[in-house]
Amino acid sequence: MANTYHQVYIQAVFAVKYRAAIIDRTWQNDLFAVIGNLINETGCQTIIVNGVADHVHCFIGLKPTVAISELMKAIKAKSSKWINETALTPSRFEWQGGYGAFSYSRSHIDNVYRYIENQAEHHRKQTFREEYINFLRKFGVPYDERYIFGELV
Fold it and tell me: Which positions fall inside the Transposase IS200-like domain (predicted)?
């Protein structure tokens, strides 16, 4: 083929280290905007970024030359640097080491967008742990529940 055509949609989910609920409502929208800009800087497309006090969801139109692992590494490193340089938390801010990445077809864009848009409402009924395990099960991702968040349960 003479050109590259692509359509890859990824929902990435990552948590604050130890799942500490420290993303404050007073600055969370600024953080989500920073993350969205970081995604766009890679040539990928930010569809929506949202979350709650202990984790973030990013819905991304992935550029095929960008590895998800490198994208997540950059987003997490640069956004935590921004939080620390802006002194938004009383102690050093860190993201948890891992992340989840789940792929969707074009027909799912609206539903995934609404799901991410309504995170605050969603988490009134379900914890992040429950949500994340449901994602892993829904997408058939093998996991060991004892180590899912980097600690023994």
Answer: 5-119
Do residues 67 and 8 lie in contact, with contact meaning Cβ atoms separated by under 8 Å? Answer: no
Query: Does pTM top 0.85 for this prediction?
Result: yes
Structural domain of residue 137, as residue ranges?
A: 9-142
3-state secondary structure of 119: helix
Tens digit of pLDDT for each residue in 14-47?
Answer: 999 999 999 999 999 999 999 999 999 999 999 9
Query: Is 1 within the bounds of a domain?
Result: no
As a whole number of angstroms, the distance between CA 84 and CA 35 comes to 14
Does residue 2 lie within any of the structural domains? Answer: no
Is the CB of residue 13 less than 8 Å from the CB of residue 135? yes
Does residue 4 fall inside a structural domain? no
How many domains does the structure of the chain reveal? 1
Please check whether residue 20 lies inside any domain of the structure.
Answer: yes
DSSP string, 5-56: ----EEEEEEEBGGG-----HHHHHHHHHHHHHHHHHTT-EEEEEEEETTEE
